[in-house]
Write a structure and sequence with these properties.
The complex is a heterodimer of chains A (840) and B (219). Chain A is mostly helical. In chain A, 65% of the residues lie in helices and 2% in strands. In chain A, the strands form 2 sheets. Chain A has a two-stranded antiparallel sheet. Chain A has a two-stranded antiparallel ribbon with strand order 3-4. The termini of chain A are far apart. The radius of gyration of chain B is 23 Å and the shape is elongated. In chain B, helix 2 packs antiparallel against helix 3 (64-94). Helix content of chain B is 34%, strand content 26%. In chain B, 40% of the residues are buried. Chain B is built from 4 helices and 10 strands. In chain B, strands 3-2-1-5-8 form a 5-stranded mixed sheet, with no helix packed on it. Chain B has a 5-stranded mixed sheet with strand order 4-10-9-6-7, with no helix packed on it. With 219 residues, chain B is an alpha+beta fold. In chain B, a hairpin with a 7-residue loop joins strand 6 (150-153) and strand 7. The chains are: A mainly alpha (840), B alpha+beta (219). Chains A and B meet through helix 5, helix 10, helix 11, helix 12 and helix 13 of A and helix 2, helix 3 and strand 9 of B.
Chain lengths: 840, 219
């Protein structure tokens, strides 16, 4: 039934078959990493980067796991003297932070990077250099955080870093700065991954694969990446605000000066709750991929599952307050968030029942990935039910911040993420390493993990209901907590052994497994339409109608599909229209380069300078970032017109230099979605503090005079001029006018920045009151966007000067225009907001 | 019933939410036991469904709407409506009301509590780490903090309420009978978090305990 529905109306004639080995050699020469250590540093290939993400995440999982064993050792007895309290606080903070930010998120990014091009039928991700940049930012940020643990100055305020405990008064050391800066550094990689996952799914699918018929993994990852684009900016904003408060004493969260510690909680959980579904959705995507294959059938209810994914994405942004039921919010408001939190069980249940129904209609096989799927069902159903309990307000008032919550969150995160990811790893391992697994070891690891997990965490529900709070290191007066804690500690060691055996099993398969046959699970999806292990280029020719499943492997290897080989010596992949999947153009992707590494290094130097408190040196780092990023644009243009490429008989496509709707343009739109979310959160902060915070109204402002109004008018006028110049430059791209109009844009940008500098000098002292601090941030936001807009104008000018613009080649002009309009709109809104504050 | 005795004995403890000593904690404990039974039944239902799906001989295909709309939406929403409604009803009964109840205050700091309450002579009495309240009558507790966020929790009497600098949150509690109950800080607040405990002394109305004996007077 599905196979009929899947068939597209479009047809595409085959290219003539060639020798597969010749094609393989030709493509490998173009797509492979450089040899030796330079290859390791310069690789941008999604298979390399994806595996590297997953392996590094695995290392952080092991480190986080060792920390959890230290916690369990400390809690095994009521007077544990194993760790002192200060160190214990660092260890549980690091356990949570590492598992969330350095294991779970990078692991799912790694899976997405490694898998998506393969399962969607492309040769690489949309932005290979961004993959590599994301990896280096993750590695450097994670290393900074890890080093702090070795130096004994690790974050110690709990993984949600509630202020005022995390502010300068109560955490005077750099512990909190490590968290804020290190995690923000890692978040850059998350947002970068979100941008490219979104665009890859929308535009790098197999020819004529409409969104409505793409593999479910595509829908799950699209939901995930959209949530990341919208959900990470609140935390990034919160971290920036808290770091600015710590570094410069701007009082966003200081209740005595118009701030409010609850603003941090809102921003944190606006991120933190979607985060849970960001982690769950890719894992659920793996389940929706694996269960039908293991049951030798198709998924039950494709449309219902897609609707459930979209429902989860929507609902997940409406229930962050259930982490804040005890902060003193009115009961009617709590009832709303309680209902919304309970409602999220509906799309989750739709998926669980669709999966069971899939098993019902198929013929399930108990292979190793399926064991982990069964472990998922048992664990996740229980975790979901305790989640619904916690959504019920009066029960939450009792259970909140106790071991019951610790138990619940481990049931959903290990049940809903780790078990499915282990199913995914065992499922895709033959494609990763080309080898079959060693018998028996995997089953033993599974049972150790399952028994160890439930032994550790099931009784922890009771421990919590007996009143044991989270984050305590001793409990000398509570003999009733001794036995359940001892049970948890003993089984946690079983759990740890299980994970160790799992890793050992993976190693055995990698090094000693027998060669796997092609498509060992008889799966239908395109990821199995290639040789094992996956070649660097994925497909010798790209799939399309009639050649869009695993059965097309031989035809694709012989070059019968689209864009066979690498005849031009470039890394080429097909770009489609986002909805229909109609072929649009051919993108030439960048090859091996150390530019991402250099970029991550200069960004890292900025964070290190901030951490060291050398704020006066940070402008140097910012200049270095600008210089390095400038070089990213170098390969985006072409100095000449290129002929159409014959992708298949009757299908001639332009190269990306000669179309307007490039991947880069789509990526810029996605980036602005994230940027817009950040700005919306900033507006939320202004509104929240002025309405809810106790220390208002603010003292009189000096901004109400005529001079500030004039400066604002000059800035907005100049930015409007920039928007016009961007349009004119693009319109005049075939002539000499483009260069002069771009120059006009540069000058307009400089005027706007000069006016904003004047405004900065007129601002009230931002340390006086949160209102003045927020105005400083609004102006800072406008300045950063003004600088980037001016740089894009400069880039357009360079493109025009160096011949990278022409009748069909637009250079950076479209992206400049997009950015300039966004900068103008946000600056205008900020100006109106401040004006309204002054008038009202 | 006899089988329940050891189970319930395992639920006892000076900080146990399952060993309630006041109406608020009793309501929530009842809510918990009801939810536990429901959750147990649902877990069993799902696992049996899975087992049947696994073992049944291959036959006619499954009806998609039964699984996704029937079970996924219909069944779950029915359960949720009942549960959320029940939870809201419980929550409304726990809330403070404007009925002239005894008012006490709790001020949290790193790492201890300062309470004010009506003393033996009716005048306000300030104490550290011991709160005196009469038995059998509801009291409203005004909770705040002077430094970082803490949380006021007496598990045997009822749910917790955060102590947030710059805000005063009000919680209503009541103890059924005279006695002593343990309380603690439930929100992580730094090095002294584990030991930020306090005691609630519940006295027979009109019979304020002798402060010199209980040792809980102001420092």
């Amino acid at each position: 039934m599905m196979s009929d529905a899947k068939r597209s109306d479009a047809t595409l004639p085959a290219n003539p078959p060639q020798r597969a080995l010749t094609l393989h050699r030709e493509l490998t020469a173009v797509w492979t990493d450089l040899p030796g250590w330079r290859g390791a540093l310069a690789s941008v290939n999604h298979t390399t980067i994806g595996l590297r993400f997953m392996a590094t995440a695995g290392v952080f999982f092991a480190i986080g796991g060792v920390l959890s064993m230290l916690i369990r050792a400390q809690l095994a007895t009521p007077r544990g003297a194993f760790l002192d309290t200060a160190l214990y606080n660092q260890i549980f903070t690091m356990h949570g932070s590492i598992m969330m930010f350095l294991f779970a998120i990078p692991m799912l990014e790694g899976l997405a990077l490694w898998l998506l091009p393969k399962i969607l039928g492309a040769r690489d991700m949309a932005f290979p250099r961004l993959s590599a940049l994301g990896y280096w930012c993750y590695l450097f940020g994670g290393t900074i955080i890890l080093m702090s643990l070795l130096a004994g100055v690790a974050p110690d305020g709990g993984w949600f870093m509630y202020t005022p405990l995390s502010d300068k008064t109560y955490t005077p050391g750099i512990n909190a700065d490590v968290w804020l800066l290190g995690i923000t550094f890692v978040e850059i990689s998350a947002v970068a991954a979100a941008v490219e996952i979104t665009i890859t799914i929308l535009r790098c699918r197999s020819a004529h694969m409409p969104l409505s018929r793409m593999p479910l993994m595509g829908w799950y990852m699209l939901g995930t990446s959209v949530m990341m684009l919208v959900g990470f900016p609140p935390l990034i904003l919160g971290s920036i605000l808290l770091e600015v408060e710590r570094a410069f004493d701007w009082p966003f969260f200081d209740v005595a000066r118009g701030g409010d510690p609850l603003l941090w909680q809102h921003l944190f959980w606006l991120f933190g709750h979607p985060e849970v579904y960001i982690i769950f959705l890719p894992a659920a995507g793996a389940l929706s991929t694996i269960i039908p294959v293991m049951s030798r059938t198709t998924i039950l209810g494709y449309g219902a599952v897609v609707a459930a994914v979209l429902g989860l994405v929507f609902l997940s942004f409406g229930l962050w307050v259930h982490h804040m039921f005890t902060v003193g919010i009115p009961h009617m408001a709590l009832a709303f968030f309680s209902a919304a939190s309970a409602l999220v069980a509906v799309p989750t249940a739709v998926q669980v029942f669709a999966w069971i129904g899939t098993i019902w209609k198929g013929r399930p096989q108990l292979k190793l990935p399926m064991l982990y799927v069964l472990g998922f069902f048992l664990t996740f159903v229980m975790g979901g039910l305790t989640g619904v309990m916690l959504a019920i307000v009066p029960f939450n008032w009792q259970a909140h911040d106790t071991a019951f919550v610790t138990a619940h969150l481990h049931y959903v995160l290990i049940g809903g993420f780790v078990f499915p990811m282990m199913a995914a790893l065992t499922y895709w391992m033959p494609l990763i390493c080309g080898r079959a697994r060693v018998p028996k070891l995997g089953e033993a690891a599974f049972w150790l993990i399952l028994i160890g997990f439930h032994g550790t965490f099931f009784i922890m529900h009771l421990t919590g209901l007996l009143g044991m709070p989270r984050r305590i290191d001793v409990y000398p007066d509570n003999p009733e907590w001794v036995l359940p804690n001892l049970v948890s500690s003993i089984f946690s060691m079983v759990l740890a052994m299980g994970f160790a055996l799992f890793v050992f099993d993976m190693g055995m398969q990698w090094f000693f497994g027998a060669r796997s046959r092609r498509n060992p699970w008889q799966a239908p999806t395109l990821d199995w339409a290639m040789t094992l292990p996956a070649p660097a280029y994925n497909f010798a020719s790209l799939p399309g109608p009639g050649r869009d499943d695993a059965a097309a492997a031989v035809m694709l290897a012989r070059g019968e599909g689209i864009l066979p080989g690498a005849p031009r010596g470039w890394r080429e992949t097909l770009v489609v229209e986002s909805g229909s999947g109609r072929p649009d153009h051919v993108a030439v992707l960048p090859g091996n380069t150390m530019l991402p590494l250099a970029t991550a290094a200069v960004i890292g130097s900025f964070f290190m300078l901030m951490l060291a408190g050398a704020y006066w040196l940070t402008p140097v780092a910012i200049m270095a970032i600008v210089l390095v990023v400038w070089r990213w644009g170098a390969v985006m243009g072409s100095g000449r017109d290129h002929a159409l490429v014959d992708a298949a008989p009757g299908l001639a496509l332009p190269l990306h230099w000669q179309v307007r709707g490039t991947l880069a343009y789509s990526g810029a739109v996605a980036t602005l979605v994230a940027d817009g979310s950040l700005y919306a959160c900033l507006l939320f902060g202004v509104g929240f503090l002025s309405v809810v915070a106790p220390g208002w109204p603010a003292p009189d402002s000096d901004l109400s005079g005529a001079l500030p109004a004039v400066l604002v008018a000059v800035a907005l006028g100049a930015m409007s001029m920039g928007s016009i110049a961007a349009r004119l430059a693009e319109a005049g791209r075939a002539t000499d006018l483009a260069r002069r109009r771009a120059l006009l844009g540069v000058i307009a940008g400089a005027v706007a920045l000069a006016a904003m500098t004047g405004l900065a000098l007129l601002l009230d002292d931002p340390t006086r009151h949160a209102r003045d601090a927020l105005r400083g941030v609004l102006l800072g936001f406008a300045v950063v966007h003004g600088v980037i807009a001016a740089l894009l104008a400069l880039r357009t000018h360079a493109d025009a000067r160096d011949g990278r613009m022409g009748a069909s080649r637009r250079g950076a002009a479209p992206v400049w225009r997009l950015w300039q309009d966004f900068a103008l709109a946000t600056t205008a809104v900020s100006a109106l907001l401040v004006a309204a504050q002054e008038v009202l | 019933m006899a089988g329940l005795v050891p189970v319930l004995a395992g639920c006892q403890g000076s900080l146990s939410t399952l060993d309630p000593a006041g109406p608020s904690a009793s309501l929530v404990a009842g809510l918990w036991w009801a939810m536990l039974i429901g959750a147990g039944l649902i877990t069993a239902f799902v696992l049996i469904l899975l087992a049947v799906a696994w073992r049944r001989p291959e036959g006619n295909g499954a009806d998609e709407r039964v699984w996704t709309l029937g079970l996924g939406v219909g069944f779950v929403i029915t359960v949720l409506v009942v549960l959320v409604g029940f939870g809201f009803w419980v929550g409304e009964r726990i809330l403070p009301r404007d009925d002239g109840a005894v008012r006490v205050t709790a001020e949290a700091r790193q790492w201890g509590w300062t309470f004010t309450q009506p003393g033996p002579d009716g005048a306000l009495l300030e104490t550290r780490d011991v709160l005196y309240v009469p038995a059998g009558v509801p009291f409203d507790i005004e909770i705040t903090a002077t430094d970082v966020i803490h949380s006021f929790w007496v598990p045997r009497l009822g749910g917790k309420m955060d102590a947030v600098p710059g805000r005063v949150n009000v919680a209503r509690l009541m103890a059924d009978a005279p006695g002593e109950h343990e309380g603690l800080c439930a929100e992580f607040c730094g090095i002294g978090h584990s030991v930020m405990r306090f005691t609630v002394v519940v006295y027979e109305p009109g019979a304020f305990p002798d402060l010199t004996v209980s040792g809980g007077d102001d420092e």
